[in-house]
Amino acid sequence: MARPTARLTVLSGPSGVGKGTVVAEVRRRHPEVWVSVSMTTRRPRPGEVDGEHYHFVEDEHFDWMVANGELLEWAEFAGNRYGTPVAPVREQLAAGAPALLEIELQGARQVRGRAPEAQLVFLAPPSWAELVSRLAGRGSEPPEVQNRRLAIAQAELDAAGEFDAVVVNDDVARAAEELVGLLTAPPPDLRPEDSAPE
User: Fold this and answer.
1) pLDDT per position in the chain (198 positions), as tens?
2) Start and end of every Guanylate kinase-like domain (predicted)?
């Protein structure tokens, strides 16, 4: 029985690199690409739509999802929890269509553990100076908060070697197209050059 060519692709990278912007561009250019919607225990922000930006749930429901293995990955940030419901991802892949997750490094590592066949893509900034500029431009945070954020970003950048592919976000449209190319490429064990008899 032939294996489906659909593949789970995880996009991760340091804070401030533009993951959300690149995924939004993918959706705009390729509405057929399915992007997982994360679940969170935090309250909706103004303009956020339940089921579109996040699935907003109570702590008790999130606890139940964790206890019953219903999350592919989950993590806690700033006192709120975020996770990827596993059922919609499985349904998408079973239908033979690629699935895209946009998550943080901690979640990407969990996916690697639970779904080793997943393709992990690291979104990198054009340069460290550019990332510093983006992070510094996020608001008037105290220097110690900025320094902590930069230290985390450096640690996240150092993890690029754990990923299957690296996409540099030097141009949002180009990065989006490169990501779609990775999404739609057949898994390595199904590529013609790998199918020759031994």
Assistant:
1) 334 457 899 999 998 899 999 999 999 998 888 999 999 999 999 999 999 889 999 999 999 999 999 999 999 988 999 999 999 999 999 998 889 999 999 999 999 999 999 999 999 999 999 998 888 766 667 888 888 888 989 999 999 999 999 999 999 999 999 999 999 887 666 544 444 443
2) 6-184
| SS3 at position 42 | coil
Q: How many CB atoms lie within 10 A of CB 153?
A: 21
With respect to residue 197, please indicate whether it lies within any of the assigned structural domains. no
The reported pTM is 0.86
For 146, the domain range is: 8-190
In a domain, 2, yes or no: no
DSSP 128-191: HHHHHHHHHTT----HHHHHHHHHHHHHHHHGGGGSSEEEE-SSHHHHHHHHHHHHHSPPGGGS
User: Would you list which residues are annotated within the binding site for ATP?
Assistant: 13-20
Alpha-carbon distance of 81 to 122, in angstroms, equals 22
